[in-house]
Every structure is written in C-alpha cells, then in structure tokens.
Amino acid sequence: MDTNQWLSTALMAASGISVFLAGYILLQRRACCSAPLALLLATSAAFGFGYALELVSTSLPSMLGWIRLEFVFIPWVPYFWLLFAAGYAKGRNPGILAAALLAIPPLAGSSIALAGRVVPLVFAEAWVRSDGPFPVFGFEPGPWFIVNTAWTALALSTGFAFLGAAAFRAAPGLRKQARLVLVAALVPVAGYLAMLADLVPWGLDPTSFTLLPIGALFSLEYMRHTISGLAPAAREAVFEAMDDAVIVLDGKGLLESANQAARRAFCLDDACAGRSLAEIMPERTELAALALEGKGRLSFRVAGLGGGAAEGADAYWSVRALPAKGPGGKTVGTVLVLSDVTEDERLLAKLRELASTDELTGIDNRRRFFENARHESIRASRKGTSLAAIIIDLDHFKAVNDRFGHAAGDAVLRESAKRLAEGLRGSDFFCRWGGEEFAALLPDTGLEGALALAERLRATLELEPVQCLAGPVRVTASFGVAAGVPLSSGWLDQLLGRADEALYRAKEAGRNRVVADAAEEPELRAAADLTTPSGGESNA
Is the domain 242-341 a CATH 3.30.365.10 member? Predict the structure, then answer.
C-alpha cells in the first residue's frame, strides 16, 4: 500500500471514530461544553474524510471536488474549537449573541464552497504537484484563503488562551486535568502554524492529522467525567450556593478559591488569591495553623459580627479541614469548611441558662448555686479566708397563697428575690433554695459582716409591701447565718446545714429575725442566741 493510501486509510478510520464519539457526546450532553465538543469532532471528521479522499486523488478536478467538500466544514472547525474552549474555561456556553457574531466567518466560508467559488476566491490558482512521493494539491492563495487563515489563527489562539486561563485558575484537584487539556490543545495549534510556515513536506496539511486524535482524547476525558465533571456549571452553582463558607487552599497553603458565603463572611476578594491565611486573616492564627495541618477541627468566636435578632453580638464558627486529593490519592491542597454555628451557640447558651436559672424569679437555681459555692469554697480554703452562708425563708408564705392566690404568691417571690439580689454584693452568690426559701454565699466575709448584711436585707423586705393585683402584701422573712474558714471537702455542706439550723431557730423564736450559728466564732455566740423581732433592736 502506497504512502498516500496509508494516510488516507488512517484519516478515514479516525474520522469514523470521531463521528461515533460526536454522536455519543450529543446523546449524553452532561456538560455545558458537550455540544461544541461534539460538533468540533463532527466537522473535523468531515474535513478529515474529504482530505483522505483528496490524498488518493490523482487529477485536479477530483482533488478540487473533495476540497470543495472540505471547505464547507473547515471554517467551522475553529468556530467550534473556540466555543468548546470558552465553555470549558468558564463553565458555561457563550451567549447566543456572541455565538451568532462568531459564526459570520464560517458561514461566509461555507457559502463560498457551496457556491463552487473555491477557485478563485479561496485559491487564485490550483495545480497538481508532482514533487513528492504521490500527487498532491498545489495552489496560490486567494483572498478568502487569507481571511480564513486569519480567522483560524485567531480562533485557535483565543481558544488556547481560554484553556490556559482555565489551567491557571483550576483548583488543586482539577489542575492536572486542566493542564493535560492545555498541552493537548497545543498540538493542533502547532500543526497549523507549521503548515503556515511551510515546514510540512510535500505541501501536506497536518491539521486534520492533529485535530482528530486530540478530539478523541478530549472525548475520552469527557467519558471519564473529567471534562463534564470537573468544570460543569452545576458544580460551580452548588459551590457558590452553599450556606457553609468554603475556602480552598493549594499545596503551599495559599488561597485558591472561596465561595460566596466565605467571601461575604470574611471579606475575601480577588486580591486575596495566592496569599496565605496568615496574611489574609492575621487575627485568626488558629485557623492558619489548622490550614497548615491540613486536617482536623476547631471552633472560634468573632466579636461583634453576629447577625439576625442579635445583630452586633458575637459570631461563632466551627471549622473542619479536609485534604484535597488529586489523581492517585495524592494530597494537593486543603479545603476548609466553615459553618456558622452562632444560632446553635445561642440556643445552647439559652439552654444552659434555663438549666441554671430559676424560671420564676430569674436568679440562679440550687444546682448552679452549688457549682459556684464549691468553687468558692476551694478558693477560700486555699487562701484561708472566711465564707458566710445565709438561708432565708419568707414568713407565712402559704397564707399568702391561700389568701391572695398563687398569682400573688408568684409576685411576692419575684419581688422578694429582686430586693434580696439588689441588697447583695456583686461578688456574692444567690439562688432560690426551694419553695419560698433563698440562699446566699458571701466570699471573704466573717460572721459579724454576714449578720449585718442579713439584717439590712430583713429590713428591706419588710419596709414596703409587695403590690399585687389582689392588693398590697406585707412580706417578712427569717434569716439563718453561719460563717467560717473551709477546712475539708465536706465543710460547705456543714456550713449550709448550720445556717439552716440557725434559720430554724429564727422561725422557732417568732420569725422576721436574724439568727446566727456561732460555732466557728465563740465570741459571737451570745449574739447568735439573740433574736431581732420586727421593730426591735438589732442583735448584731
């Protein structure tokens, strides 16, 4: 088989494969650039088919017949090449207006071929060359040949630039594939330039020989979901629409990309690309450290950036770092997924507050009081300072409920808690002990100081009645006081128990009075045995 027959057979086979691949891609249509790729394959196959038959032709009329067929499709090859490259790079097809304007040169070229004006508009003169191993077509360029050459060169170079930009911007996991497409695209560009420079022997046109196999390579990438899966509009839309902020870093820890949520939350813009998180967010050193680690989790708080009902409050973020894997499982970067958990934190804070706060009075409940009291007891024991405890019981509270109703009783509890809390120091701990009882723990306070404070609280309660819907309700209370320096782990319970015993004695003695347990301070034992009736003289 002669050389021209070998070349013709190879082109025929490649053209057939390209037609099959074009049909497959058109049926699948899984990517925005699938239609331009399929049409690129189809027009290249038609061009290759015509050129294959031109190579085995021996007469000028036969050659011109096949060349006329070729030039119906040749102008469309760079057109669909350009649409494919733009769609691949941008993740979406060019607009209808842009596609229509770009179609003007190929429409004109096809019209010339269909009108039978290849000579003299495309070729000023034509002949059969006999200086090679087989007859080939020789020509002098005509005016449209020059226009078509310029159009083809512009379209090929522009498409190559699109692919280059896509390879430069590709995320770490996509970069290898994008660069493969770019290198493959260089082959037909180089072949076309070699033909223009008259570097191909015997005047052969290498364009079809390069376009067909490169188109097949693109198709294989398509079927492996690399072209259709790595740069589709759907993937980009999901990435941008995510509620979570996503930051993609390359293998050097430099910002590769960020979705809309991340750009909005952390004020990222195009100027941040290619910079490290340590530069972009110097205040978030823990985030930069996690990015360098490449995996793990952390949480952080941003002061004053909360939104919604609590705008201006703190914002809370939970961060997960994931390694970005490239082909072969190699780590090529890091993906940070940042979830705004501000509402969750607010809900948890509310639940903690409900778990530690008395619902009716709004002060600490008994569980929270014991947590604080135990910590304070440990501190006082370490420093050797005194702690005082006061147990308070509202007098004849059941009678208030029976006479005025439970609504009045609730109002008395709320107002009493308010007055008692206002009379304590900021360092004191105060809670609803249970029912109509309250408790206070006074750090750095001896028995004498606690007695004086309790007496002031007693006087405050009885000073003015509580105003309820059912009328004014006079409120008095009995107080039991104990104090001392913590000596053992069970000392706190003992202190509160002694204060409770003193309260019992106050109620036994007639209520509305302060009674102290002086077990730790004998010099005040006499005072502890005294009581202070309403309107009477203070026992402190």
Answer: no
